[in-house]
Amino acid sequence: MSFIIVVLCLALLIVLISYFKVDAFIAFLISSILAGIALGIPLEKLPDSVNNGIGSILGGLTLIIVLGAMLGKLVAESGAAQKIASVMVSLFGTKHIQWGLMVTGFVVGIPLFYGIGFVLLVPLIFSIVYKYKLPAVYIGLPMLAALSVTHGFLPPHPSPVALVVQFNANIGLTLIYGLFLAIPAIIIAGPVFGSRLKHIKSGPVTLFEQKEDSGRYSMPGKANSFISATLPVFLLIIVTVIPYCFKDMGEMASGIVSFIGAPSIVMLIALLFATYTLGIRQGRSIKSVMAVYGEAVKDISMILLIIAGSGIFKQIMEDSGVSNELATSLEQLPVHPLILGWLISAVIRLCVGSATVAALTAAGVVMPLVTQTGANPNLMVLSLGAGSLMFSHVNDSGFWMFKEYFNLSIKDTICSWSIMETIVSVVGLIGVMILNMIV
Fold this sequence. Notes:
Elements (H helix, E strand, L loop, with lengths): L1 H17 L5 H15 L7 H13 L3 H17 L1 H13 L4 H13 L4 H19 L3 H18 L4 H9 L4 H24 L27 H24 L5 H11 L1 H17 L6 H34 L2 H10 L5 H16 L2 H19 L3 H11 L9 H9 L4 H29 L1
Helix pairs in contact: 1-2, 2-14, 3-14, 4-13, 4-14, 5-6, 5-11, 6-7, 6-8, 7-8, 8-10, 8-20, 9-17, 9-18, 10-11, 10-18, 10-20, 11-12, 11-13, 14-17, 15-17, 16-17, 16-18, 16-20, 17-18, 18-20
């Protein structure tokens, strides 16, 4: 009976979001409360479950997401992202322009949220299209595949960070494993698949215009742009690898590494560094930099609420005891828990459209399996992330952004964008299972 209730509540969540267009946070709240009532949680204790669910998940990741959003916004506003893009294009040349744009999307996608990176880089794609007379989908899809992979696989993006917190995974190891998965996923879904799409014709950009800087501030240099944008990644990798390289560190040294390696501290260091290198050093006042940060917080406020909503659902599952029941039942299935997590996330993605909602909702269902089956929590984060990218279609905003930007038919959008997302998802799962045999 508990399983039927959970399925019905998940179905209600999907219907509220996809059919009735209810805000994801409100849909989570309604579905979670109804689930709590149906699963027998006393009414007087239900508000505590709601509050505890929000607090338990946001407490560990609010700082990371907010600081990451601030860094990404400054990278975009300062012109660092454009500088990185222009360097990549010049390095790879027109013959290998797909690969240059792929690397650009990957580097820029690490600090930037997907929507920001998309709006920022699509004008670059069309500037190259017009200059070299190349098919837009053919050269643009590798860049967007890279953006998608960083969004689904790599911290400090909201969904991977939230999953790391929920599964008590190691954010540094998750990032390192994610980088190993990202490379083949981007190559296969980007240049390899994109090379088959030369026949798809597109129109000019008609929806959005990139902000033009008034010239008040100087552009950052090449090295400055790369270092400032990717500093969090290198810091996380370094502090994760140090304990393996220096196993006999003293207590004080170990404590310092642990402190610096805390994700929130890593993001704070990177943000302070960028505040100077991309802000003050380029002629911006502290006030103007803080204005950029204020806008960044507005951009991710709804993302935080969606994550909070998933925390409520998770807490209801735990407090009602249904998590352990589901884990026991699911454990009997002849399916590896990592594959099961990917499958549940993929099904929810197909129904809801939002990758973040899909991954976080699936996490609440499969979380007990990590403990009971001994599945690697870092790989479970990546498995759910891969599943959450499965076959983007008409209920996903990314689908429509791609269609309208490139002025495509729905058929051509499915044949290009939707298939690219499916390739990323499947290659990600294959990579997870290979890593599971190694680590």
